[in-house]
Design goal:
By secondary structure, the chain is α+β, with helices and mostly antiparallel strands. It is built from 4 helices and 4 strands, in the order αβαββααβ. A 4-stranded antiparallel beta sheet has the order 2-3-1-4, covered by helices on one side.
Length: 139
């Protein structure tokens, strides 16, 4: 059985989002960060060397509610690979912050940024209007 999708006029969506925001606790804007890794021979080694410090910082930001979602992009063949054989291509995160500049500062303080894991010239930070909810902030 095929289900038809109901098309909602754009004005109705904005109205729904606006009403939802007004009736819930105010929150900060969300920003998605795409941070591709450098592709040189030593990039993976640098990533793995600072990973524990990177994860410690990430977990702190998650517990503070600043970083809401985070993960690493991998190559398609890495899906079924053993953990030691996975090939990483970059990181993707969703932050809550006052501004793009505030989020950029957090990114630039990250160990992956400071140790040349992420390609600084290719990092993208954009505001995102989420349609789905985010996981709750750990308490």
């Amino acid at each position: 059985m095929t289900r038809a999708l109901k098309i909602i006029p754009q004005r109705s969506i904005y109205s729904y989002i606006h009403k939802r925001r007004m009736s819930s606790t105010p929150s900060l804007p969300k920003f998605v960060v795409w941070a591709p890794d450098y592709t040189d021979e030593g990039a993976l080694g640098r990533r793995l060397a600072v990973r524990p410090a990177h994860l410690e910082n990430i977990n702190k930001q998650i517990s503070q509610g600043v970083l809401r979602v985070a993960g690493a992009f991998m190559t398609p063949e890495s899906v079924d690979a053993a953990a030691a054989d996975r090939k990483f291509r970059g990181s993707c995160m969703i932050y809550e912050g006052e501004s793009i500049d505030a989020v950029r500062q957090l990114v630039e303080e990250d160990h992956y940024y400071k140790t040349d894991v992420w390609d600084k010239e290719k990092i993208v930070i954009l505001p995102i209007a989420l349609v789905t909810g985010l996981p709750p902030v750990p308490s």
